[in-house]
């Protein structure tokens, strides 16, 4: 089973582009967007590295026409429409449930004049996935060379640069993530990421906002404490605002103390841990 598209926890933008081509989108959260919404650039390219392909999107124009598919963010304000799952007429009030379509059209919506809304979030994906599942080999319109790849399994994956701070200069490294279709986040460290500067607390900064819940949660994890791997936990905390980065605060030992006994090599070993966004 093939991996599915990238998906934001809640990304929203608008466009006044008309026609069937590439969209010019705003790089700010539209007024009236749900709490916790972020921009496509913040959700999919937090380090401003482009292009980012295979992004699930739903697009609803000013006339209520809907298009769902996969696209590519080629810049903060440029989004290409690469592959259509289906298109048709949608309701114009939330939650934008698409009208039943017996077969996908495979054509890009010819966007009407006015403001269209562009979304990427699990709610829309869950509504649209049944269409994809009924047509697992649908290949989109004739101008699209992309393959659907089958039923969606993993809906978001990628990496970010996390920084371990321990009272001094931070140590940065690559952190991989994968979010399953049920909202389970798996964080993995391809190599140990530790910091041995002065200090006995260990916090990772730079966690993308879409990988944190609205409240803090504590989950089991293996951590490095004084250069040894021990069972502990991680406090996954959101940022101060819905679009700001979150943190992983390390807890060591059976007491889950946030204070490490020494300032030698505290952090994460090459390992994984998981938590839920629900």
Give a description of the structure.
The protein has 278 residues and is mainly beta. It has 2 domains: 11-152, no CATH class; 156-276, Adenovirus Type 5 Fiber Protein (Receptor Binding Domain), CATH 2.60.90. The protein has 2 helices and 16 strands. It has an 8-stranded antiparallel sheet with strand order 12-13-14-11-7-8-9-16, with no helix packed on it. A hairpin with a 3-residue loop joins strand 8 (171-180) and strand 9. The longest helix has 13 residues, at 122-134. The two termini are 25 Å apart.
How much strand?
35-45%
Task: List the strand order in the largest sheet.
Answer: 12-13-14-11-7-8-9-16
What's the end-to-end separation, in Å?
Answer: 25 Å
Q: Structural class of the helices, strands and pairings? A: mainly beta
Main β sheet profile:
8 strands, antiparallel
Following the backbone from N to C, one meets helices and strands in this order, namely EEHEEEEHEEEEEEEEEE
With helices defined by DSSP (H or I, 4 residues minimum), what is the helix count? 2
Domain count, please report it. Answer: 2
The poorly predicted ranges are: 93-104, 131-155
The number of E-state strands comes to 16
Radius of gyration: 21 Å
